[in-house]
Design goal:
The structure holds two protein chains of two kinds. Chain A is globular and about 55 Å long. By secondary structure, chain A is an alpha/beta fold. The model of chain A has no long low-confidence stretch (mean pLDDT about 95). Chain A has eleven helices and six strands. Chain B is of the alpha/beta class. Helix content of chain B is about 45%, strand content about 15%. Chain B has a nine-stranded parallel beta sheet with strand order 5-4-3-2-1-9-8-7-6. The model of chain B has no long low-confidence stretch (mean pLDDT about 95). The chains are: A alpha/beta, B alpha/beta. Chains A and B meet through helix 3 and strand 3 of A and helix 3 and helix 5 of B.
Chain lengths: ~270, ~260
């Protein structure tokens, strides 16, 4: 795991360590997901017989994007069946956050053939629309090859992959799964972005309204859905809540500083 | 001033290596990352090295060098930060050439894809570049690049490794031009470990499958390794060890001379 991500998702890492995993922080490159993928590839090719390579996102060389899609599709199949069971029909719109795009492809794939359903992926708009300030690959990327797949990439004119920014570790990646690039190109899925601040607002609203602390990644889908719902009153919406936010407590404590404010108040 | 060499570029690579092996020596193919450690020394260094060796491999820096160890990662990131790009490399080489040895560019695919394959093949010729090594391009995906390079007689040099299955090994040997790049280890460049004992048998097997010369690379850093490999290979590629010499400010020509005694 990139050293930056170990820090910002420390509770997840702690859990992995307690379960007996050895977690190696990657200190090369940009020290996030992309550098971790680079390093995992290097480790694998250095010991192809002793290493088992497993990619968690829908990126990398074939057949990894396909494998991840098939395994993640359980969420889309179950959500589709349950939505019909509970509401008597299909949703009007479906939202998922997209970094590499694993949870999104898993949610969308079983619904791609349902042409009445709007599928909307939400990327990380970060701090601004400037190159380097976000991870909105589908919005502003150009075709390129990274980690063994041809897809859209955030890169400069010379084909150097650019550093990205997102408040969420899971969306902070300069590429995107190749199937998302295809779904965008054929017009089946539309992709939008929301900023760090919009995601944090949605996270807070979800906490207050539902008592659920979503991952900052998933909060991007919530923010995108809220924006769409305001313009489409009365429609039925399905949102992929892909992760828990307890892993994000270091970032949230920093941003909201709720505990610190209580202490400061008590001291005053 | 030497005149620009003529002839089919990929045949120039093969001929340069053959000329040396026929004289009973092991061909030497050094690698350096373009523009590292000093951008303004780039072509002078290539020029000096080219007088001593058979083929010069020039690395195009890339932001995600997945097949490279720490030395070439460091070199690549530093070169990119200094403004080294494929366009800059080709223009510098074109202005400073010709060189005494044919050049090959080692590049990950994305910089080539951005440059445009046809324009790349065109720009390679006046730069003295005779071929390309693209470590993240599997042969099944290489038709477009190969067609563009073939049209100008440029080599797409194929890499094989000890883990390459037999059928694929023959396919890659048939498809390669210039030479066969036989990776000596399963791993990344610059490994500090000893070369594996079974490397000689593997190299003999690769050589039995091709009429092209075979050059062994990854982890080759010392004269005794070159001596040990010599009966089983036509040439050796030396990368990280040379980059480390250049980083330390040492004379690259002296280092290469010691690596391959007369």
């Amino acid at each position: 795991m990139g050293a930056v991500d170990v820090q910002r998702q420390a509770p997840n890492v702690e859990r992995m360590v307690q379960l007996g995993a050895e977690v190696v922080p990657v200190k090369s490159g940009d020290r996030t997901l992309r550098a971790a993928i680079d390093e995992a590839f290097r480790d694998w090719v250095s010991d192809p017989d002793g290493s088992y390579y497993l990619l968690g996102s829908a990126v990398g060389p074939h057949p990894y994007p396909l494998l991840v899609r098939e395994l993640q599709s359980v969420i889309g199949r179950e959500a589709r069946a349950q939505f019909i069971e509970r509401t008597g029909g299909l949703p009007d719109a479906v939202f998922a956050c997209v970094g590499g795009g694993s949870n999104a492809i898993g949610l969308f794939h079983p619904l791609v053939a349902d042409e009445t359903v709007d599928l909307i992926g939400i990327e990380a708009g970060g701090r601004s629309a400037r190159l380097g300030d976000n991870s909105a690959t589908l919005a502003t990327g150009r075709p390129g090859v990274l980690h063994g797949s041809y897809s859209l990439l955030l890169q400069d004119d010379n084909g150097q992959v650019q550093e990205t920014h997102s408040i969420s570790a899971g969306l902070d990646y300069p590429g995107v799964g190749p199937e998302h690039a295809l779904l965008q190109a054929i017009g089946r899925v539309s992709y939008e972005s929301v900023t760090d601040d919009e995601a944090l607002d949605a996270l807070r609203e979800c906490c207050r309204a539902e008592g659920i602390l979503p991952a900052i990644e998933s909060a991007h889908a919530l923010a995108g859905a809220r924006r769409w719902a305001q313009a489409n009153a009365g429609k039925k919406v399905l949102i992929g809540l892909s992760g828990r936010g307890d892993k994000d407590m270091p970032t949230l404590s920093q941003v909201f500083a709720g505990a610190q404010k209580i202490l400061d108040g008590a001291a005053a | 001033m030497t005149t620009r060499p003529t002839g089919v570029p990929h045949e120039r690579i093969t001929a340069a290596i053959r000329q040396t092996t026929e004289a009973g020596r092991t061909a030497l193919v050094p690698y350096l990352t373009a523009g590292y450690p000093a951008k303004d020394q780039f072509t002078a260094t290539v020029k000096a090295i080219a007088t001593e060796v058979d083929v010069v491999e020039i690395g195009v820096p890339f932001s995600d060098p997945m097949a490279d160890g720490v030395t070439i990662q460091r070199a690549s990131h530093s070169a990119i930060a200094a403004g080294v790009s494929l366009r800059w490399i080709l223009s510098e080489l074109t202005n400073a050439g010709p060189f005494d040895a044919p050049l090959v560019l080692m590049s990950y695919l994305n910089p080539l894809l951005n440059f445009g394959y046809r324009e790349l093949a065109e720009a390679a010729i006046p730069a003295g570049v005779c071929g390309f090594i693209v470590p993240d391009l599997p042969i099944e995906e290489s038709a477009d690049l190969r067609a563009a390079l073939d049209a100008r007689g440029l080599a797409l040099i194929q890499l094989v490794t000890p883990a390459t299955p037999p059928e694929r090994l023959s396919m890659l040997c048939t498809a390669s031009r210039g030479f066969i790049y036989a990776v000596t280890v399963t791993g990344i460049t610059g490994g500090a470990r000893e070369l594996p004992a079974e490397v000689t048998g593997y190299l003999d097997r690769v050589r039995s499958l091709t009429r092209l010369p075979v050059c062994a690379g990854f982890g080759v850093r010392r004269a005794e390794q070159v001596q040990k490999l010599a009966p089983h290979t036509d040439g050796v590629v030396v990368g990280s060890a040379l980059v480390e010499q250049l980083e330390a400010g040492a004379d690259p020509v002296a280092f290469l001379r010691e690596l391959r005694p007369l």
